[in-house]
Design goal:
Blueprint lengths: L4 H10 L1 H33 L6 E6 L12 H8 L14 E12 L8 E9 L3 H4 L4 E5 L8 E5 H6 L8 E4 L2 E10 L8 E5 H7 L7 E5 L6 H10 L5 E5 H8 L1 H36 L1 H9 L4 H27 L6 E6 L4 E6 L4 H27 L3 H5 L1
Parallel strand pairs: 3-8, 5-7
Antiparallel strand pairs: 1-9, 1-10, 2-3, 2-9, 4-7, 5-8, 6-7, 11-12
Helix pairs in contact: 1-11, 2-8, 2-9, 2-11, 2-12, 9-12, 11-12
Length: about 400
C-alpha cells in the first residue's frame, strides 16, 4: 500500500520557509548548471552554423586551421576548374579563394583598453552566393577595387568605428564600412569582410589561406575529396565545410562542459546538504505521524519511498526556479577566444529544451540523494520510540 502524494504536498506546505530555502538553493545550482551548458551550446552552435553541408573547404595539406594554411593562385585556379564545383546562373564557378588574417582591435566602451584579435576575411564576389546564410542588413556590398569592408553584426556591437559610413584602420590603411551582415548566428558575424585582391597586397601576402566552393552534388563530397587530394598538381586537404567548423569547437566546447559539471558539482554538495537538513527536520517533527502510518499497515518501504518522493518534489520545485532564473540569459551575446584560430568569436547563450530537461533531471538527482538517508531513517524508525 502506497502513501498518497497529497500527504507529501501537505507536509511541504506546513514547512514553507525550510522548503522554500531548500528549493531556492537547488534552483541556484540548476541555474548555474544550465547557464554554463548554454554557454557551451551557444559556442558550438556558432561554429556549427558557420559551415554548410553543400560547401567544401580546401586548405594546404597538413594545416589544421585557415590561419596556418596557404594556397597559391595556380592551385586556386585548378580547384575552380574541378567538375565537382557548382556553376551559378551566369555560368561562373561558385568558388571563393579567401584571405584570412588577424588584426588587433580595441573593444567598444572598454575603459581598460583591452584588445582582441578579429578575423579579417578577404573574399571574392562569389562568396556571397557560396555562403547561403549571409544577409546584408544595412548598406551595400563592398565594390571591387575600393578600400571598403562589410562587418558582421555581432562584431559591430562590440567594436568601435564599425557603423556604416565610419572608418576602420588596419593594415596601414583606412577602410570605409559600407555594410553590416548577419550569417545565421555563425562565427562569420564576428569577422570583417572585404575584397581579397584588396587585402592581399596590404598584408604582404601573395597566397590565399583557403578556397571554399559549392558542390555541384552535395552527395558527391567523398568523390570530390578523393579527386582533389589525389591530384599531383595540388597539395591540399579537403573538408566538408560544416564538419570542419564543428571540429573547431570541440576543444573549447568540452572544456566549458567540464567547467559546468565541475562548478555545479561543488555547488550541488551544498544544495544536497540543505536537502538533507530539511528532510531530517521533517522526519524528527513527524515521528508520531510515521509511527501511525506504520501502525496502519504501511510498509517501511512505502515510508521510504514517500520521503524520497517528497525530497524529489522539493528539488523539482527548485529545478523550476532554476529554469526561470536561467531563461533570461537565452540570446545574450558574449564572446570568447576561439583557440583554433586565436581570434575573438561572439556568440549567444543558447538555452535549449534539452538543457532545461537536463536541469530538471539534475535537480531530481540532488533531491533524491539528499533525501535518501532521512528517508531511510524514517523507514527504520521503531514504532514505540516514535510514539513517545
Amino acid at each position: 500500500m502506497k502513501i498518497p502524494l497529497v500527504y507529501n504536498a501537505r507536509s511541504m506546505l506546513q514547512r514553507p520557509v525550510s522548503t522554500g530555502l531548500t528549493a531556492l538553493g537547488i534552483g541556484l545550482v540548476v541555474a548555474v548548471f544550465i547557464g554554463m551548458l548554454a554557454l557551451a551550446s551557444g559556442f558550438r552552435a556558432a561554429l556549427a552554423r558557420t559551415g554548410s553541408d553543400e560547401n567544401v573547404l580546401v586548405l594546404r595539406r597538413g594545416s589544421d586551421s585557415e590561419l596556418s594554411s596557404g594556397i597559391d593562385r595556380g592551385t586556386a585556379s585548378i580547384i575552380a576548374a574541378s567538375p565537382h564545383v557548382a556553376i551559378d546562373a551566369a555560368g561562373h564557378p561558385m568558388v571563393s579563394p579567401e584571405v584570412y588574417v588577424l588584426i588587433p582591435l580595441t573593444r567598444r566602451s572598454d575603459d581598460t583598453g583591452s584588445v582582441a584579435n578579429v578575423v579579417v576575411r578577404g573574399v571574392s564576389d562569389a562568396a556571397w552566393t557560396v555562403r547561403q546564410n549571409l544577409r546584408i542588413v544595412g548598406g551595400e556590398r563592398p565594390h571591387s577595387g575600393r578600400a571598403e569592408v562589410c562587418v558582421g553584426r555581432k562584431m559591430a556591437q562590440r567594436f568601435p568605428n564599425t557603423d556604416i559610413g565610419q572608418t576602420l584602420r588596419f593594415g596601414g590603411r583606412d577602410w570605409t564600412v559600407v555594410c553590416q551582415f548577419t550569417a545565421g548566428g555563425s562565427a562569420f558575424e564576428s569577422e570583417v569582410w572585404g575584397e581579397n585582391e584588396q587585402f592581399m597586397p596590404v598584408f604582404r601576402g601573395q597566397v590565399f589561406q583557403s578556397v571554399s566552393f559549392r558542390l555541384k552534388d552535395p552527395a558527391a563530397f567523398e568523390e570530390a575529396k578523393r579527386a582533389l587530394e589525389a591530384d599531383q598538381r595540388l597539395t591540399v586537404d579537403v573538408y566538408r565545410e560544416s564538419r570542419f567548423y564543428a571540429q573547431q569547437s570541440a576543444v573549447l566546447g568540452r572544456i566549458l562542459e567540464i567547467l559546468a559539471f565541475g562548478i555545479t558539482s561543488i555547488m550541488a554538495i551544498g544544495a544536497v546538504f540543505g536537502a538533507v537538513n530539511t528532510m531530517y527536520a521533517a522526519v524528527a517533527s513527524r515521528a508520531p505521524e510515521i509511527a501511525v502510518l506504520l501502525t496502519l499497515g504501511f510498509h517501511p518501504v512505502s515510508v521510504l519511498l514517500s520521503f524520497l518522493v517528497e525530497s524529489a518534489l522539493i528539488a523539482l520545485l527548485g529545478g523550476v526556479i532554476g529554469i526561470l532564473l536561467a531563461l533570461p540569459i537565452n540570446g545574450i551575446v558574449t564572446s570568447t577566444t576561439n583557440w583554433a584560430s586565436f581570434s575573438e568569436i561572439a556568440f549567444s547563450f543558447r538555452v535549449t529544451p534539452g538543457l532545461l530537461l537536463a536541469g530538471l533531471c539534475f535537480a531530481a538527482v540532488m533531491g533524491t540523494v539528499g533525501g535518501f538517508f532521512p528517508a531511510w531513517r524514517a523507514a527504520r524508525l521503531p514504532v514505540i520510540q516514535a510514539l513517545r
